[in-house]
Amino acid sequence: MIKKKILVTGGAGFIGGNFVQYMVKKYPQYDIYNLDLLTYAGDLTKHHEIENLGNYFFIKADIADSVTINSLFEKEKFDYIVHFAAESHVDRSITDPEIFVKTNVLGTQVLLNAAKQIGIHKFVHVSTDEVYGELDFDPTTFFTEETPLQPNSPYSASKASSDLIVRAYYETYGLPINITRCSNNYGPYHFPEKLIPLTISRVLNDQKVPVYGNGKNIRDWLHVIDHCAAIDLVLHEGTIGEVYNVGGHNERTNLEVVKTIIETLGKSEDLIEFVEDRLGHDKRYAIDPTRMEKLGWKPTYTFETGIAQTIEWYLNNKEWWEQIISGAYQSYFERQYTLK
Ligand code: NAD
Ligand code: TDX
Fold this sequence. Notes:
Helix content: 40-55%
Oligomer: single chain
Number of strands: 12
Largest sheet: 7 strands, parallel
CATH architecture of the domain at 4-189 and 222-249 and 284-302: 3-Layer(aba) Sandwich
Bound molecules: nicotinamide-adenine-dinucleotide, thymidine-5'-diphospho-beta-D-xylose
Order of helices and strands: EHEEHEHHEHEEHEEHEEHEHHHH
């Protein structure tokens, strides 16, 4: 039997890493290739458990390097591509937008072009709800797949641009694609620059937690495993050319999220420090997942069960996040925040 080859880009990062492990374990009949540049956000130690299973392979490469990507695709005839690789942190996009355009826009176009040359079964582009811009605080309004793209940050603008290039490869060349737009993820291996792991790691070290503005901005949280299951379903069952919004109706203000973590860890709310707001800070995100639900997807975690599992994971895997926050991350943190 010839095994199907699935290329996962960004599989050393948070969501891509969880997806690689999910696919390697669930589908021994597929060969899973993880292509990643190993930027500050990429780490392979998380894959020790799957390295020797026989259906996992790692390729170090830059998705924006067309020479390397084209020669790789000539050698390996991938059947499917699931594209996660990106610069993903909004704050970093505000201080240094250029790399976001290079990786997220040019990198996506390079992959699409290589995929077009070899002819693939499907290219799944993993995008974000942030491409829709922001919602106001009316709780009856949601992002649907028809909501116009109105990105506000350099990060979300680069993701929206990549979505449009993916669409153009479908409309112009008939490349078989899907685009997924998920809400905020959380769970194991979330890089500690993002709100939830930042809060957990700092509260565990009795350090102040920086909350931007008044803490009333709302995000719609989804456990990373539920996102992985949604992408798996779209990969196998998604209608070619379609966009799918992914979310589980778990809206929380940032302050609620931070307080939940502090309370679960039995610490004091005195650790909260309100700091200067993020520039162009989107007020609210909230997903209408009806199209995904019609495809047969539903999340397995509520926010309560998911955050409890995540906090437990960070308690049991201190060595993973401690080696990150003790390294080059330190100087990023000092540049980004002026906290005690
Ligand atoms: P992450 O920052 O944790 O991981 C990104 C990975 O991409 C890293 O392993 C990094 O080394 C790799 N990478 C970066 N530049 C590269 C390049 N030029 N070539 C090859 N590899 C490169 O990101 P994440 O949070 O796991 O997000 C993954 C994807 O999901 C992104 O496309 C993001 O836009 C999207 N997304 C994220 C969320 C979220 O809440 N984190 C929600 C919705 C969608
Ligand atoms: O120190 C902080 N203090 C704070 O109040 C940080 C890092 C964040 N925040 C706020 C900003 C946001 O309202 O918390 C909220 C969540 O912030 P992030 O964790 O940076 O996520 P967000 O900006 O919402 O973007 C995330 O979700 C969508 C991912 O990083 C993106 O890659 C994804 O597309």
